[in-house]
Amino acid sequence: MRRFLAIAVLLSLSVPATTDAHEIIQKVSRGTGVVIELSYPDHSPFSYEQYEVYREGEEMPYQTGRTDALGRIVFLPDRQGGWRIRAFSESGHGIDVTIDAGPEGAMGTVGHSDSDRWSKIVLGLIIILGVFVVIFRVLRRRAM
């Protein structure tokens, strides 16, 4: 009986412990990241909306998630190059921009800005005005 207990004790000590199966290891490090702040035209934050970050030329996202309460996307690029950022809401709002970034942070952006928005509005108004001028001239010629 003592041999059986001794063998059982030795066997139980030789089996790896599974107590760390639910353990989470955390590592906090500081580095240069890219922070993108998104907001609606009324300046309210683009909060808790889905986003995807892609390396240039890749189809699988490098990072996915949701924006934070202030509408921010934060990621740490692992190499220099173009990074495609897609953020979208269920209501259809969103962005699809490409930025130039690397391990030292963002270098510049290519995509939408407030000035792009206003130039599109002005262009749209000019086109609408042009259509009305053409219609007015055609109707005026027919009246003569």
Features:
Immunoglobulin-like, 144 residues, five-stranded antiparallel sheet, elongated, 30% helix, 7 strands
Structure description:
The protein is of the alpha+beta class. The protein has two domains: 30-112, Carboxypeptidase-like, regulatory domain (Immunoglobulin-like), CATH 2.60.40.1120; 113-144. The chain contains two helices and seven strands, in the order αβββββββα. It has helices spanning 2-14, 114-143, and strands at 34-37, 50-55, 63-66, 72-75, 81-88, 94-102, 105-110. The strands form two sheets. Strands 3-2-5-6-7 form a five-stranded antiparallel β-sheet, with no helix packed on it. The radius of gyration is 29 Å and the shape is elongated.
Residue stretches low in confidence (pLDDT < 50, at least 5 long) are none
First and last CA, distance: 121 Å
Helix content: 25-40%
Task: State Rg.
Answer: 29 Å
At the fourth level of CATH, the homologous superfamily of the largest domain is Carboxypeptidase-like, regulatory domain
Portion of residues in beta strands equals: 25-35%
- Helix run count: 2
Write down the CATH topology of the largest domain.
Immunoglobulin-like
Shape: elongated
Average pLDDT, all residues: 80
